[in-house]
Amino acid sequence: MSLQLRGPQSLSELEQGLGRNLREVIERTRGVGAYEAALADAPEQIANFHKACLPEFIDNAFNGTLLINMRWAVFDLSGGTHDLLTGDRPYLRWHGMGDPRCYLSVAISPTHLFVAANAVETLRELETQARKYTVRNSNDQIVRMAVRDVYATGPSHKEFVEARLRRDGEPIPGSILGD
After folding, report:
1. Average pLDDT, stretch 14-43?
2. CB 3.0 to 4.6 Å from 87: which of 19, 99, 146, 155, for a disulfide?
3. What percentage of the chain exceeds 70 in pLDDT?
4. pLDDT tens figures, 109-163
5. How far is the C-alpha of 167 from the C-alpha of 160, rounded, in Å?
6. Separation between Cα atoms, residue 137 and residue 157, nearest integer Å
7. Which of 20-34, 69-83, 121-135, 161-175 bottoms out in mean pLDDT, i.e. has the lowest?
């Protein structure tokens, strides 16, 4: 959860989303104008409300239990023509956490991919897939999900990254707020 929530873009999204919610809750429970009064009385607490909520979101027991109960594996993808990429959003997830088809992945080195899946069959499918396809698919999604930064072991990925990296003004995929 921390990989998903602690990046600058995600923190900004939390700040915007929770800021709107906080204003609505304060106004609804304390009346019109109460938000401005709270802002005047405790500007730092209001401004940092999203940061105060972050530990609770990261340590979410429901999601933590789902993750702990997934099947875990590390795939050695060395020997291929390309290394794994990572970026400012290094965590990939397919399907919702409670979905039997769900799996998530994180490159833990240029040649090793951590994968957690709800179904053993998913791990088997990935294990039997040609390494080059696993690397390509992971790299493709990492670049497309990146807000600004992609990291590689060298310049050999430059064309691949430039063809897929989000351009200024394009929507940011994988928003934590679902916008």
Report:
1. 90
2. 146
3. 94
4. 999 999 999 999 999 999 999 999 999 999 999 999 888 889 999 999 999 999 9
5. 14
6. 14
7. 161-175
Tokens of 40: 């005047």
Angle at 63 between CA 61 and CA 64, to 5 degrees: 60
Q: How far is CA 108 from CA 74, 76, 77, 111, in A?
A: 9, 10, 11, 8
The residues with which 91 forms a beta bridge, in sequence order, are 106
**How far is it, in rounded angstroms, from Cα 83 to Cα 138?**
10
Kindly write down the DSSP assignment for every residue of the chain, as one continuous string. -HHHHSSHHHHHHHHHHHHHHHHHHHHHHH-TTHHHHHHHH-HHHHHTHHHHHHHHHHT-HHHHHHHHTSEEEEEE-TTSSSPPPEESS-EEEES-TTSTT-EEEEE-SSSEEEEEES-HHHHHHHHHS-HHHHHHHHHHHHHHH-SS-EE-SSGGGHHHHHHHSPPTTSPPTT-TT--
Q: 179 pLDDT exceeds 70? A: no
pTM: 0.77
Round to the nearest angstrom and report the end-to-end CA distance of the chain: 19
